[in-house]
Amino acid sequence: MPANSLDDRKTCDEATCNGVQPLPPGLSTGALVVARGVRAQVETTLQHDDCCELRLLSLTGKVRQTLLWPFDRPVPLDTRRRVRVVSLRRWTQAIAHALRSHLDPLVPRASPGDVDVVAYQLAPALAVARGTGRILLSDEVGLGKTIQAGWIVADLIARDPASRVLLAVPASVKAQWTAELARRFRVDAVDVDARWMRRMIADLPADVAPWTAPGVYVASIDFLKRADTATSLLPHIWDALVVDEAHAAAAPTDRHAVIASIARAARRVILISATPYSGDPAAFASMTALGAIPGGHEAAILMFRRFREEVGDTRRRRHRFTTIRLTPAEANLQRLLERYSREVWEDAGCDRVNARLAVTILRKRALSSAVAAAASLRRRRDLLSSRTSLPRQLTLFEDDEDLDDEVSSVILAAPGLADAAIEEQWLTALIAAADAAADPDSKLRYLQRLLRRLRHESAVIFTEYRDTLLHLSRSLPPSLQLHGGLSSKERSAVQQRFNENGGLLLATDAASEGLNLHGRCRVIVNYELPWNPARLEQRIGRVDRIGQSRTVHALTLTARDTAEDLVIANLSRRLSRVVATLGAGDRLGAFLDEARVAHLVIGGAALAAAAPPSGDVQRADAVGVAETEAARGLRDRAGARGWPSRNDILVSAVQSREAIPPGCIVVFSSTAETHDGTVVARRTDALCVRAWTDPPASARAARAVAEGVLEQLPPIESLIPSLDEWFRAACATHERSTDCAAARERGLRDRMTAQPVVQPGLFDRRALAAAERRSEVDADQAALHAERIAGLERSRTLRLVSSPLAVLIAWR
């Protein structure tokens, strides 16, 4: 062995390694570099033990790449200012682009796919970019709330690819959400269900949760509320939580409990509901409190509530209540049910709540159809006669709950009268009355006449119960059906077929949320009056959407001299609260006058005023200049090609005229930046300097004139007094958003609880090992919180950077 050779152990000794080669000064955050032949900007630098991760964004704004230093070695761009002489047209285009780019820090960075850029739909994404932590998207049905939430999600992923986003949506629209994110925003979302959960648990180590990896997860709310799913889900911190049809997650429900727990562990909470307030103050307050950090000082939830008229949509809608006179048999059924309900209400036993709920459901089903009432009455009689308990055993990783429109057997089995024999006699008499009233169905006869008048025009008939739907399908022309007994794939197939071919569609409320049915239809018929006014708007909103070119007609059938007069009275009271809270122009409040007229016709009683809710909400402004300019900037950025480098100062010349005095016009760009070069706000100013009157003889002469003018100019801060005021306002806005984000991050950190003391087993150390792993995870999470809080504190202070963009020589 040669004497001067090195021992192998020395070459492999970690102590001889001095660490990763440091980055050169030109590769800091915000710097412009050339990497693999592409000009890009350094967005983030992450230091690791053996390398440094560089995340780059191309200057066109469309390509992102991640490189590892020192294996990849980007070259810093030459940052020296160069004066370039260009044509007047080129100079004008560049200045117009610069004027619109003052919103660049806020414009969503996502590259849209098959989606039109509409100004008002960018407003929520701009609010999130400004630091708003909790948003309620409650625009009128059909104005694209899914697209607005998609902008937020896509922008978040574009800014930080390591983000983790959870979308909690109704099971019926889960596939639609996944498809829309992929088609419109090129975001590949994970479709979370029982099969995915089983596969992930089988493939991952026992101590790794399925939700650990970055990405976008789409799951149904009912799947998330299961005990096994919630157990694996709740310990995680989410960068964003999106809840579709958030009104369904209001308290007091299991859905509210799980969504509230997840929202408290999310940095951003986006709620979506076209009908956020339907007249129940407690439900509205519980929904608007989702995601609020207890004891925090963050602002109230920001609600976007825009109407069609505000965004330039002048489509019309017509809705009216139609009263139907009952047959003697139907009236007899209603009277018997009223007497039976009164006896149960006064004589309910220990299960008073379920017994009263059971008779209430029977009354509702009788208002829908005698067939639906007969089916539930028979079920109730059979359940009471069997006297058996009805436990429900949950299976491990069971599938999503069906959107069923059937009545729970547990409720129908609740005894209503102390004497079981008398109750059985009552039920037998009611079944006979329901069977007698089923044949001459007054509502059905009216509906048949209506469809004949429509002359085969496409229509959607909504009913609350599947029994009524099946009854209608046997008596009406051939039709498609949408109800809770169909799988998600079957519902999607029916929706596609109806939108392609039209016809008659019979649907329960399983189809009233999230589905688009406006392709060939503009007619909605509510076979019975829903007790919740929000359902009216949800149903009509299936055809009254963006893309509907015709007037929408909606008809709600009500039975004269029945309990529906009480329903309309309650409906009117709740709509009064809606108007008091959301304004008289609210689409849901538009039903108020119709409900009042119907109540006076059917019930003949006056209405009492109702107080507004107590939810802590701040309203966002209508569509403004910022959103319009952001839309333009996004379009311009998508189509921009070959814009000059920001180091170039463009020079051109033009003959002076009345609007352009002789001299030089100098255009400046001013930015408010953080310590790492992140631009928070930008503005563009122009100054007129009377320093030149003769036309430049050549490009060299034009450059010399521009350079001379720029050298003689004093600091721009002294030339533009409003610049200092603008910078102070930008700092104040940035400090508020940063403080809000830091406060929420501290709230997420403080929610971490101390681990219980673990006693080791005599021959088994698995409990100790699990506790150690959990402590390591908590330590890493605490370090991440501390790092984010420190980063927010560092970025709290801004600096003002001003530089010339262009010079226009106006010769006499």
Features:
about 800 residues, SH3 type barrels, Rossmann fold, 24 strands, six-stranded parallel sheet, single chain, eight-stranded parallel sheet, alpha/beta
What does this structure look like?
The protein is α/β, with parallel strands linked by helices. It folds into 4 domains: 8-76, SH3 type barrels; 82-111 and 646-748 and 768-812, no CATH class; 118-311, Tandem AAA-ATPase domain (Rossmann fold, 3-Layer(aba) Sandwich), CATH 3.40.50.10810; 321-557 and 566-593, Rossmann fold (3-Layer(aba) Sandwich), CATH 3.40.50. Helices cover 41% and strands 17% of the residues. The chain is built from 26 helices and 24 strands. The protein has an 8-stranded parallel sheet with strand order 9-10-8-11-12-7-13-20, sandwiched between helices. Helix 25 packs antiparallel against helix 26. The termini are far apart. Mean pLDDT is 78; it is low at 1-17, 390-404, 592-612 and 639-643.
